[in-house]
Amino acid sequence: MNQSIEQKPSVSRKWHSVSFWLMLSSFVLLVVINLAFKFISLEDPFSGNHLFRQLQTLSTIEAYQNDGIDLLKPRANYIGYPGYLLLEFPIYQASMAKLSEWTGNEPLLISRVYNLIVGLLSAVMVYIIARIWTDRLSAAGAVLLYLFTPLNMMYHWSTLLDPTAVLFALFSFYVCYQIIENRTKRMGVYMLFALCSCLVVLLKPLYYLPVCLLFAYALIQPFIVRSSPLDLKNLGIFKLNIIIPVGAAFLVMLGWMTISRSYSSAQDISSHIGWQAMLNPGFYVTITLRYLFYIQTPLILLLGIFAIILSTENPKLRILMLLLVALPPLYYLLFANINTPHDYYSLILVPFLCIAAAVGLQHLSRKLFAHSENPKSLIIPSAIVVLGCILGTYLYIANYWIKPNLDNRYAVIHAFAENRLEPFQYSLVYVNTDGNFQLSEYLAESRRHLILAGIGRLDESKIRKTIKPIYGPPTLYAFNHQYGEMHWKNANVSSSDIRKDVDTYEGHLRYIIFYMFDQESVPDDIPGTPIHKFDDLVIYDLAGS
């Protein structure tokens, strides 16, 4: 009897030693698998989602690399001449241009590898924040759930600036919480908080909402949860440590909105802000389904709800978890218009609900197994995390890989134009609205319409009227990195309209391209020299005209 009692601690220690290394190796393996998925088609510019924005951003990086960096004059390839688009502060585009120059690599590869590294750094921040409220196992689970969410598996290898903005927002959130809890009083920390806050609002002002909610929590928390008499004097001084950096960030944001509105030749930073989308009942259905099965997974939301329900012994923690779980609906309601067409704007929501899921995972494990020495207490949460990774991978494949069976039209155009057209020129591209586009090419550009067509809610005629099979930035990029404009016209495009478009370029126009036009449909008096007339494609070169 005594011998068996004495053996129990050694058995337990042996089990925990084996289980630790088993879980560590499994963690590393899952991270490697996650990265392997993201390395697929890494150097293919026409792979991925939301190519409109990805290739528009990439075109600005290439322009900086070729023309030199002017932070107030970032060229975008689809706006025309001179084509400056100043929505966000283009520090990401400028940095990628410099990195490409220093390394001698293509901007596409540099920007995507950079975002993969930034995604891993954000995962580290998720671990650090989750570790404040959970154990190591649950925090590691939050990291895996974060990496395997469908949205991250797509956009962590994009050419967008959003992953960088998410990283700065996570760091700002972490430092803000440290200040709230009086865990730091160093001036350098406050300055770093102010710097990261300013970078977030310069890159993506919407992504500062989690910090704003934490700031609101800091203001009301002493009045809701009090274990000692409230000291209003110290409270006021304490809150200044947050108010000053947050206030500085808001001043920077307002200043940048004024500057960008003055210098941008296209829409300004506030052009998509509004709430008209909320008047459409379909908005709520679309956002809910998108969030559950495309941005994150139902399992993560369920664990977040567990975090609220099960943290009854800690009122402060319960309020914080409620704040994190309430972040997505609040975000969508505050920024309804801009979130409707932009799925990647939800990247900021992913880490915070994963952190809440870690808290829910730990509390659930403790409810199921009161004694932490029970080996099964490690198996259950590990199995839940693995299930979350499998579910996230499945939803990623279902959303991004299962598309209509068709040739990638952008890749086909690029294969033709790569050695025929000089890159980085100004071009006008006219696309025939009645061109020979297959129906599947329309649906490949719109997941929502693909679903509606599949359930019989859209007929072919409505699909062709409401969706375009190709868009400006990817098409111009496919024609060997051109800048300029793309116009949708019918087969009877007039020469007078073309000449008016040409005149706006003040002699900087190089090519006029007619795509999905036959030779008979193109006017005879087009300026320039015809260099290609074949297969629904007519190209004129204005060099020397």
Task: Draw up the topology in text.
Elements: H1 2-39, H2 51-67, H3 91-103, H4 107-133, H5 136-147, H6 150-155, H7 162-180, H8 187-203, H9 209-224, H10 232-263, H11 281-295, H12 298-310, H13 315-334, H14 336-339, H15 350-368, H16 376-400, H17 409-417, E1 426-432, H18 439-443, H19 447-454, H20 460-466, H21 472-478, E2 483-489, H22 495-503, E3 509-515, E4 529-534, E5 537-541
Parallel strand pairs: 1-2, 1-3
Antiparallel strand pairs: 3-5, 4-5
Helix pairs in contact: 2-3, 2-21, 3-4, 4-5, 4-7, 4-15, 5-15, 5-16, 7-8, 7-9, 8-10, 9-10, 9-13, 12-13, 12-15, 13-15, 15-16, 17-21
Describe the protein in words.
The protein is mainly α and 545 residues long. The chain contains 22 helices and 5 strands. It has helices spanning 2-39, 51-67, 91-103, 107-133, 136-147, 150-155, 162-180, 187-203, 209-224, 232-263, 281-295, 298-310, 315-334, 336-339, 350-368, 376-400, 409-417, 439-443, 447-454, 460-466, 472-478, 495-503, and strands spanning 426-432, 483-489, 509-515, 529-534, 537-541. The chain has a 5-stranded mixed beta sheet with strand order 2-1-3-5-4, with helices on one face. β4 (529-534) and β5 (537-541) form a beta hairpin.
Largest sheet: 5 strands, mixed
N-to-C series of helices and strands: HHHHHHHHHHHHHHHHHEHHHHEHEEE
Percent strand equals 5-15%
Radius of gyration: 27 Å
Which structural category do the helix and sheet elements fall into? Answer: mainly alpha
